[in-house]
Amino acid sequence: MAGRKIVSGASSIALGLATGGAGNVALNLGKRLAVRKALENKKIITMAVAAFFLFWMMLFGLVVIAFMPGNDLTGSTDGFTGGEPTEFAFNTIPPELYDIYRKAQERYGVAWNVLAAINSIETDFGRNVKVSSKGAIGWMHFMPTTWSGWQNPNSKDDLNNPVFDKDPARIAQYGGYGVDADGDGVADPFSKSDAIFSAAYLLQKNEFQKNPEQAIYQYNHDYSYVKNVLNKAIAFASMIPIQGHTIWPVPDKFKEIISGFGPRLDPFGSGIMEMHRGIDIPVLIGTPVFTVADGEVIFAGIETGYGTCVQIKHEGYITLYAHLSEYLVRKGDRVTAGIPIALSGNTGKSEGPHLHFGVIVNNQFVDPLLIFNKS
Ligand SMILES: [Zn+2]
Questions:
Q1: For residue 359, what are the domain limits?
Q2: CA–CA gap between residue 231 and residue 109 (Å, rounded)
Q3: Do 151 and 210 belong together in one domain?
């Protein structure tokens, strides 16, 4: 799913550029003098060449991003890797488990926050490891035969007397998912490392990177369970819901960020530390501002502090574009990635022309760079 989505996204951008560009130029042509035609033709060729190169550059970029292993700030646009933990995650997840989730993510390419969500839902982070109502065992509630391998004679799914294999070699031979992560020679579903790594291994084998929902479904054949896991995962970290291609909200030449996401000293000199809930990209007033992904406009108007601003709801997250001079969309409009939705400005609490760009996941602002490739 990841790969296909990215490629089709890139071609639709290129298509949009090519048709939109050519259409406008053609319209102009009819109205202009012959002398100017030559110039226009040159423009068409330049634009076509530019669009062509842009297309391949973007395609290459997206493919590179798609195949990058789990990483943090560079951010895959398909977001199946966990982002930085949210405040909720800090308050909920026992700190000693982070390292295990992260290492499992590194080894198997499965988002750490999904592992944490499963761990939380199944056994309350190992606080309740009694046999489940279906006969699942250990830290991550594996069915004994899933752990040991279906045909493994040393294993039996039995509510009252579950039997499982602990020999990593034999488990592997029978195609079970149990692994020995802590290196003590046994694969033990009651060891937190072994159990969490085994869950990651199961999700990887079920193509988590292509389709997280289907992979989680293999864990527990119940779509409301899948939804619960994903909701919890999203509450723990920001990247899971962010799917589909995203594009930079202003023309590519404006890549500088003068103020990043996080605590900062109030730029108006009050001497107070404040939380900067987005990123500031300096642009000249009147620069087109693009929606970074497909979505629906949920706000276009004036808000204290933000000045003229637009908010767009995407699948799983909301983006906010502030300090604009003008908006070009209305509440309820459906928008596709890359179309201009506003012109930048210097309205609201702003100390100079720039775009303030924010991303909201589960009612919380998260670092927008988690969804972008910065380069
Ligand atoms: Zn800002």
A1: 262-371
A2: 19
A3: yes
Distance 241 CA to ligand 1 centre (A): 23
Which of 10, 36, 66 is the endpoint of a domain? 66
Q: How far is the CA of 288 from the centre of ligand 1 (A)?
A: 17
Residue 148 shares a structural domain with residue 57: no
269 lies in the same domain as 177: no
Q: What is the rounded CA–CA span in Å between residue 238 and residue 310?
A: 21
Residue keyed to tokens 């009819």 = 30
Q: How far is the CA of 321 from the centre of ligand 1 (A)?
A: 10
Q: Is residue 131 part of a domain?
A: yes
**Model pTM score:** 0.49
Sign of CA dihedral 321, 322, 328, 329: positive
User: Which residue from 204, 227, 224, 230 is spatially nearest to 215, judged by alpha carbons?
Assistant: 204
Amino acid at 323: H
Tell how far the Cα of 259 is from the centroid of ligand 1, in angstroms.
7
Q: Within this chain, do residues 98 and 135 fall inside the same structural domain, yes or no?
A: yes
pLDDT in tens, 150-188: 999 999 999 989 999 999 999 999 999 999 999 999 999
Whether the Cβ atoms of residue 173 and residue 151 lie closer than 8 Å to each other: no
Decide: helix, strand or coil at residue 286.
coil
Same domain, 176 and 205: yes
What is the distance between the alpha carbons of residues 236 and 119, in angstroms, rounded to a whole number? 12
Task: Say whether both 270 and 211 belong to one domain.
Answer: no
Residue 176 belongs to domain with CATH number: 1.10.530.10
- For position 330, what pLDDT does the model report? 97
Which residues, by Cβ under 5 Å, contact ligand 1, an ion? 280, 356
How long is the chain? 375
Q: Are residues 229 and 304 in the same domain?
A: no
Residue 39 confidence class, pLDDT cut points 50, 70, 90: low
Report how far ligand 1's centroid is from the alpha carbon of 201 (Å).
41
